[in-house]
Design brief:
Layout lengths: L1 E5 L4 H12 L3 E6 L14 E4 L5 H8 L4 E4 L2 H5 L4 H20 L4 E5 L24 H19 L3 E7 L1 E3 L7 H10 L3 E4 L5 E6 H13 L9 E4 L2 E4 H12 L5 E4 L5 H6 L4 H8 L7 H6 L7 H8 L1
Helix pairs in contact: 1-7, 2-4, 4-5
Protein name: Nucleoside-diphosphate-sugar epimerase
GO molecular function: aldehyde dehydrogenase (NAD+) activity
InterPro entries: Epimerase_deHydtase, NAD(P)-bd_dom_sf, NAD(P)-dependent_oxidoreduct
Length: about 300
């Protein structure tokens, strides 16, 4: 494939781009002036710079490719500026329209399991209809809806990937990074006993899934949304695995579900994170597996690769 990637300079994006290159695809990385591109200079890829307001330049960059990847959700969800997300949703619309004008066959959008509420205790599949409680969840719903609507209006095939909580190298700001910091400080937080179940995935497998989506024969309808996970575990088992791989057992701080604001700040958490720690977040990704994609990295592989 000949692909162009927008919003790929974050941690997950770097793994997606890396996997595309490893599979032999020709990759153009579209970057903005403020993006950190040091890692990408060592890759066999074409790096170009664009301005979001310059539609003609965007169309020129897109022209001649087989697939456009939009990965900008990752960086935006790690910021506290919700207006930036609104702006990115509108830019996604521009990207899809520009892709259609350039007659690109496929537009692939990286989404997030943040789209889901915390009401379902057992596993969630693509058919589950979320009832968002938090503004960030509502924005992810809005973002995906925009991808569907604009894709259909402009007759371009769209695919959406919702990965489980990702962990991997080059991560600087996610929940897992904060947990590692807590572990190094010998104050690893767990809500109650840490028995809440969660689906996780190695960032390399997210990259592999996005490569697979680039060649998968998708249809332009609401069913072209895929969940993907690497493995299921609990927050306590995650702590145990970190202990084992590092070779040092961190002290565990057992916290109640109803934390005070002072406690939330003390343990480097957020109200949303506390909720995520307290409710099961299991994914049923049978759809993508039945279509032929299989993840590669298990629990221990993933943690050892990071540490």
């Amino acid at each position: 494939m000949k692909v162009v990637v927008f919003g790929g300079t974050g941690f997950t994006g770097s793994h997606i781009i890396e996997q595309l290159i490893l599979e032999g695809h020709a990759v153009t990385i579209a970057t903005q002036e403020t993006d950190d591109i040091i890692f990408f200079r060592g890759l066999v890829a074409n790096i170009v710079q664009f301005n979001k307001k310059d539609t003609s330049l965007i169309q020129q960059i897109i022209k001649g490719h087989d697939v456009v990847y939009n990965l900008s959700i990752e960086d935006k969800l790690h910021t506290n500026f919700l207006e930036d997300i609104e702006e990115e949703i509108e830019f996604t619309k521009k990207l899809i329209i520009s892709s259609a004008v350039a007659r690109i066959p496929r537009f692939i959008h990286l989404s997030s399991i943040l789209i889901y509420d915390f009401q379902k205790e057992d596993s969630i599949d693509e058919s589950y209809v979320s009832k968002p409680e938090y503004q960030i969840q509502k924005l992810v719903v809005k973002w995906e809806k925009k991808v569907h609507e604009v894709g259909q209006q402009n007759e371009i095939k769209t695919c959406i990937l919702r990965p489980a909580i990702s962990i991997g190298t080059r991560d600087r700001s996610s929940l897992f990074t904060r947990l590692l910091e807590s572990h190094s400080n010998n104050l690893y937080p767990l809500i109650e006993c840490g028995n809440t179940k969660v689906s996780l995935i190695d960032a390399r497998d997210i990259g592999r899934a996005m490569v697979w989506l680039g060649t998968y024969e998708c249809n332009n309808n609401d069913n072209e949304v895929f969940l993907v996970k690497g493995f299921n575990t609990t927050w306590y088992q995650l702590k145990q695995m970190i202990d084992t791989v590092i070779g040092n057992e961190s002290q565990t701080i057992y916290l109640p579900k109803n934390l005070t604001n002072d406690q939330i700040r003390m343990y480097n958490l957020t109200p949303f994170t506390v909720k995520a720690f307290s409710a099961n977040r299991l994914i049923n990704d049978n759809k993508i597996r039945k279509k032929g994609f299989i993840t590669k990295y298990n629990f221990e592989d993933t943690i050892r690769n990071i540490l």
